[in-house]
Structure formats: structure tokens, C-alpha cells
Amino acid sequence: MKSFSPKWQILDSTHKGNRKSYIAFIKKIPIIRYLISNKNRLTAYTVTIGMNGVLTLLLFIIGFTYDRVNIAMLYLLPVLIASVTYGLGPGILSACLGLLLFDFFFIPPIFSYSVSDLRFLVSFAVFLTVAILTASLASQMRRRAEEAKRREAIANTLYSLSRQLAANSQIEAIINLILQFVENAFDTQAMIALSQEKEFKYYFSTTHDQQVMAKTDQYILKWVFRHGQTAGLGSKTYQSAALLYIPLKADENNYGVLCIGEPGNYTISTHRDHIEILHAIAGLAAISLARIHYEEQAQLAHLAAESERLRTALINSISHELKTPLTTIIGASGGLIDSFDKLSIEDSLELISTIREGAMRMNRLVSNLIGMMRIESGMMQLKRRETDILDILGVALADLKEILQTHPVHISTDGDIPEMYLDELLLEQVLVNIISNAAKYSEQDSPIDISIQKDVQHLHIEVRDYGIGIPDDEKHLIFNKFYRASNTTHISGTGLGLAICHSVIEAHGGKIRAENAFPRGTRIIVQLPIQSVHSQKIRKDDKN
Amino acid sequence: MNQTGAKILIIDDEPAIQKLLRLTLKAHGYQIIEASSGEKGMMNAGMNRLDLIILDLGLPDMSGLEVLKNLREWTQVPIIVLTVQEDERDKVTALDLGADDYMVKPFGMNELLARIRVALRHASQTVDEPVIELKGIRIDFVQRKVELHGKTIKLTPIEYDLLKILMQNAGKVVTHKQLLTQIWGNVDYNNSTHYLRVYIGHLRKKIETDSTQPLYIVTEPGIGYRFVAEQD
Questions:
Q1: Which of A39, A121, A350, B133 has its CA 20 to 30 A from that of A6?
Q2: Where is the Histidine kinase domain positioned along the sequence (chain A) (predicted)?
């Protein structure tokens, strides 16, 4: 940092005249202040002065007083060391100091700056030239080495950054990595504006909040985004801006803008290679964003193909399932209207109940379809609450009262059934689907056994029927959407019921599977994780 | 039934459903007034002496819940709400806003008629009957005594309150919130339904023969409980 104290400040502090202000005045002298503010520099100059002092002392004690050419050569040594170790400044200081000391201590008359032989002045000039030349060459060499080291460090960090970026597939994580990196590497503040459908979405690193945002010039931001060119402080366009704006550009696509800087910190603008590094980082960010963008597109394409396949299956399955009951409804109602005077009351009633059955069947189908759509579209949200499974089973059985009139149900439970944390309505739907399947795929009057058991971590609900069973190789397929076992073609159905069960149970963190029972029939087993529930503490406050 | 001739307002914009309700309810001896929008419905409710309102929650001009709120500001006439939504939140909201009952489309006409009968009966009931007797359960509010088929059963105070509220509203669904606020006062009802379920469980053990297939107190999942008044 450079600092130039304005004149009035100096005048002001001398004016006071006391000692404290005198010290303050000294501290305000540019070079002193420069040294105080920079401890490394201070030690550099101290060591340089020290080296020259020690050398002079040694030469003086040993008594080389009369071998002046060698002494002059020896004074080049600290110059070389200082400029290699500390740079040009200490090198030149060492050169001047060496000359002064040489003159004072070794050139006759000794202990005086007066020179007896004018030829010495020529030697001084040669010494000074050689010393300064040595200093500048050595310091240049040092700078190059430092530069190379820094470039290597930058290359390394960029490499590790790129590896971290490649490992991430979340936009937020990537942006956070970039922001953190920029802020740490350049000791400044940064922000990324990503374009999202005509608007910008702004991201800040966790350490700084929206200070950068306040300094951002929306006009420049949009210009940079539109033109894909760097602008702002330190670049060619909009140089007077407070921040530097770098586009995040990859394959002709512009994903957003990286904004860097803070008022009062101009380091970035004064170093060309800083801007180059920032460009490299912006490039890395853009590539990562492009990668995520393409991944998303691939996902969408996959989803589209999947939904296309589903749509076909849906149309095939539904057209049959909807048309059949519609045919009976239209036919029966038409018959009633056309020939109401010819039909006996019994026949009319028969036709009317056909209409009712057809409508009920359509209602079941539509309910299942809506349920499936809800799950597919991600609209299914579990509204979990503590649930008494037996209570919900009772509700399901009450719903199925009509169907179950011809199927006796046996319930066996494992005494102490814990409270479960579930979505009651969805669980009821699952039970209704499984139990109605049990009734549907078994003969009239064959019983249905329901058992609820628990182990340490799970609750097992098993529904067993004595019906047609499931072919062994299709046991895992029946939970797929629209899949119907090969032995069920004579029974109408959509292949949605168990798919819904599967989705619901999985959403609850449970499992559902089908097994064949011995000697015949199917067992559907639902396994639900038992979650912590309230203990029985409430009984205490209701004792009579 | 002595309520034949009761005047029913139907607020529904679907002509097919209007027609269905009109024909069926007229056949059962009710008088029908129809309104095809919330605005017209509220106007009709103000102009007629009604015995019951059937209100569809999906109306073209305004939300059925708004109509319900508006009506409840000035009338206590029984309101049965019709909805297509499977989402229980709407039903609970409607019930907590003062609807007497709800029906999910598609519904059976028998069920609707039963609900209408229950609602009309409750409206005509005097509030402070000292004794209610339903399906073999006799509850005596003066002596705080409950008899099941002539045999006295012991209930804890909370179980008694639960049974009392459910029987006073026999046939109607009572929401979790309504039960909780009537028994415990102001509680955070989102976290307290658990308590309710436990007490309902205890109560069922005392009055039901099979708690998995209850005859008296049935669960309306996600909504509340209903004391079944008549056999369907």
C-alpha cells in the first residue's frame, strides 16, 4: 500500500510542538510509516545495514586497510545477498551504504569523506555502477523466481478448485466454492449473478452478505451478460465502475456474471495477471454450470421419454377400463329410456343396478388415476400424524363392507401394537387396495386373513387370501404401474392399485412385497418402520 | 319423520347435480330452492326461511368457504358442504367454519338423505335434553351416568365428555379441533390429536364389542370422529 501524507498534516503536527506529537510526526514521515506498516521490509533494511556494519567492522579489525581493491570487491557481497534475498530496494541501499563506508573507513584520509586522490572518484563511480547493476539483476532474478512460484501455486489451487467443482452437481455448492475461492485468494468480496429466465438470481458467499450487491451497477451487469465481455474496474470498458464484472461464458452460452471488488481495494485492477486468473476461474465456473445445465436437460429428456411410455400404457389400459363400464351405462340407460313401458319393474331395477355398478367401477378407476397422478407429479405430501393402525384398518374394512360381505375377514394382532407416525388417509388407501385385491382375486366366501405383528424396528402388516396367487416370476413386477399378472386377464383392473401402495409405502420408508401362500393364495406383506412416539404419560391426568 | 316439507337451498353451479338433487329431494318431500352461484345463494338465504343449505365448495364466482363464512355470520341454519376434493384440509376447514357435515362427490343419495335427516333433527332439537338414548347407550347428563344396554359403565371424566359431545352431535362428524377445544379448551390441536386418539381408544374398549370394527364411534381419518346414529 502506498501512502502520501498531504502537507497540511505535517504542518499541523509540528505546530503542537510537544514530544508526543513529535513522535507522531516521525511516524507520519512517508518512509518511516512505510517501514512501520511493513514489518518484513523493516527487517530487510535492518539486516542490510547490519551486514554492511559487520563487514566494515571485520575488515577494519583484520586490517585490510591498504588492500583497497579487495575491500571494494567485498562490499559487493552484501549488495548481492540483499538484492537476492530482499529485492531491489535493500540492494541499492547496500550499494550506497557500502560506498559511504568504504570511503569513510578505508580511503585516505581515513574517518573522513574527503578524498585525497581524485582517481578514487572513478573507482567509486565504477563501484556504484557495478553494485547497482548487480542489485537490479539479482532482484530481477528473484522476482522471476517468485513469480514462477506464485504461478505454480495458482495453477495448483485452480487445479484443486476444478477438481472440487467437478465433484459437485449442485449449483449452490459450485457457486459457493467459487465465491469462497475468489474471496480468499484476492482478499476481497465477490458475488455471482446467474441468469434465470430474464432475471438475475444473486448468490453471495457465506462470509459477506449483500454489501457487494449494493455496489453493483445493474446496467453494467446486463451489458456484460449481453456482450459476454469483461467490464468494470481494471478492464477496458466502464473503467470507473466500483467492481469488476466477468462473464461466465462456456460454449457461446452465457450463464451469468461474476462481480468482484470492494471500494478502496484496487489490487485486482492494478495486476494484469490477477484479471487473467479471475478469467480462468470464471471459465471453470461457467464450465461447471454448463455441465449441470446439460445434465438437467438430459434428465428432462429422460423424463419426457418415460412419461411418453407411461402415456401409451395409460391410454391402452384406461381406454379399455373406461369404455367397458361406459358401454354398460350407456346401453342400460338407453334401454331404460327407449323401452320403459315394456320393462318389468325387476328388469328395470336390474338395468339400473348395472348402471350403478358401471359408475362405481369408473369411480374406482378415476380415484386410482388421480392418486397415481398425485404421486407421479410429486404432489403427494405425507401429512404424518400419530396413527392407530387398528383404527385405520377398521375404517378400511368399513369402506369395503359391500365387497367383504362374501369374504369373512380374520384379524390377528400381536397384542401391543405401537402407535405409528403415518399419513392416515394414504395408509387407509393402501389397506383398501390390498384387501380389495384379496377379495377380487379369490373365490366367493373364501376368507381373508389380516395379521399385524411387530418386531423391534418394524411393523408387519400381512394380508393373505386363498385366491389365484401370483406366478412366481411376476411377484416383483406387480408393483409396477399398469402391470397386471398374466393369470388375471379374465378379471378387470388397471394395474394401478399396487403401484400406488408401493409408492405410498416407500414414501413412508417402508417396504411391500408379495409372496405365494401355501397351499394357495397370495400374501402381501407391508413392512413399516416404527418411529418414536409419545409414551403413555397422558394416562396420568385422567384418573377417576 | 316430521321434517318433510323442510325447505332446502341448493347452491351448486353444475346443472346435472342441481337436477339430481332437485329430483331426489323433491321425491322425498322436501321443498327446493336453487342457486347457481355464491352471490345468488347468499341472497336466497337472506330472502327465505330455510331449514337447510347444501353448499358446493367449488363455485364459479367465489370460494364456497367464503360463502360458508358469510352465512355463518348471521344464520345457524344447518349447512351440508359438497366437495370433490380428496384433500381433508378443505373438509376440516369447512367443518371448523361451522358446516354441519360434508359429502365427497361422488356420493350415494342414501347417504346424503341420512345426513340431511341428522342435520334437520339437530336443528329442531332443544339444546338441553337431560338424557340421550341411542342404539342401546343411555347417557344421563344430570347424574353424569352412562348405561350400555341397561348396565352402568364407568367412564373417566374425559371419556364421559367425549361420549357426551359425540352423542349430542350423533350422526354428525366432530372435528379433532372441536373435540379438543370443547374438552381441554385452547390447546395446540395440531400436536394433541394423539391424546384424543388414546381416549377414543379407551372409550371404545368400554362400549364397543370389537374396536377394529366399531359400531358407535367411527373414525373419519384426518378429520375427526362420528357417533353413528342410524344403521344404514
A1: A39
A2: 317-532
